[in-house]
Each structure stands twice: as structure tokens, then as C-alpha cells.
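Write out a sequence, fold above all:
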Amino acid sequence: MFSATGTMMKYILALDTSTPETMIALIEAEDKFALPAKLSLETRSHGPVLLPSINRLLADNQVDKSQLAAIAVGIGPGSFTGIRIGMATAKVIAWGLKIPLISLNSFEHLVTLYLNKNKVSPPLICLLDARRNEVYSCVYSKGEYSLPNLLGNTEVSDFMEQFDQAVLAGSGVQLHRETILSRKSNQFKLSKIELSPLGLALLAHQKYLKKDFSSVVGVKPLYIRPSDAEKNRKNKIKKP
């Protein structure tokens, strides 16, 4: 495909496998005013569907891999296995095509979606389902992000006490709805914003235009909770 000037169009390929869904987006790289994005969402396990879904999205839009200007990948927090699959795939593509890698964390993803339609807001509390009745939390306020944290069900209510008002977003909101609203319910707005291919496209495009790239070798996943494998390894080390 060619641009209006007759040059070959360049695209950003973005993918996120940190949730049970496989999210992929294809975005025109140099379009500073609009965001024509081709989006893909698969609900099956990541391993078998990721590469076929990428190839299908490129083929359906007549985009050759040589037209990719960058690849963006979700680094979590989320599924340990899913994140590893996505990051390994993105690194191979970036390395093989010699294109920049863009890392996208899930809290930035939620904030980007919210600010796409809301210019000003009270603190935005991002809650992501961490399973085991826990959530990953991060607060965005006045352009700054707090340090991410892992909260158990009993800790969510105490965590909310520090806010006079807030907007909440993410997959953890509905899971802990009753706990969240048990205190100061009138001050909290529960949004329906969750991670999506559109948010993936928006954030990837913004970072590309800013040239906010990550090292293919140095980029790391955002793990807040240690994996079961890591716990088992530490337990074995502790044994006499």
C-alpha cells in the first residue's frame, strides 16, 4: 500500500497477551492527526493463535512485514505465561526486521483510553484482575503514576479510604465492585474502561511519535507478584 505521496506506507504492529485475550493492532505509523487502526481480538490461548493472527491481520490489509516501522508489546502486569509469549514474539520480530521495540504497560494503556475521551479527571485508579481474589493497582494523578501494588480483597477497601474522589478503570473494578462502593460510594465513578485493541493502538501510536523506544535486549516484563516458578525456586533454596 502507498501513501498519498507515492511512498510505501509504514505501520506499527502492536500486540498484548497479558490477559486471557490476544489483542493485536495495526496502525499507520506517520499519521499524526488520525488513527486508522486495524484491530484483532482472539479469545483462545495465545501460543497457537498469536503468529497466525498477526499474519492474517497483515495479509487482510495487504501489508508486508517490510512495511513495519516498529513493533509494540504489552509488558503487563498480567499472565506470566502470556506476557512471556508476547514479549518473545515481539523481540524476534524487532530483531529480525531491525525495527524499534515499544513497551506498553497495562496501566498506561488504561490511562490512554480514559484520556482519549476525558481531558481532565480526578485521580484515575487502575485496577487489574490479578486472580486469587487480588488486583494490581496503580494511581494516575496530575500526569504522574504511583508505584504499582498488589492488593488483596481486604486491602482494597482500606486502599480506597485515602481518596476523596476518584475514577476507577480496569478489569478489577467489577470484581471488587461491592468492596469499592462499601465506602464513599458517592465519590467514586466506576468506568467501563478495560484493556482493548483500541487502547493498544492509541498508546503504541503515541509512543512511536515520541520515539519512546525500548531496548530489545533490556526490556523487562512488569511483574508485580512473583511467579509460581520463582516461589518454588526460592522455597527449594531455603530447604536445608
Notes: The domain at 11-106+195-226 is CATH 3.30.420.40 (Nucleotidyltransferase; domain 5).
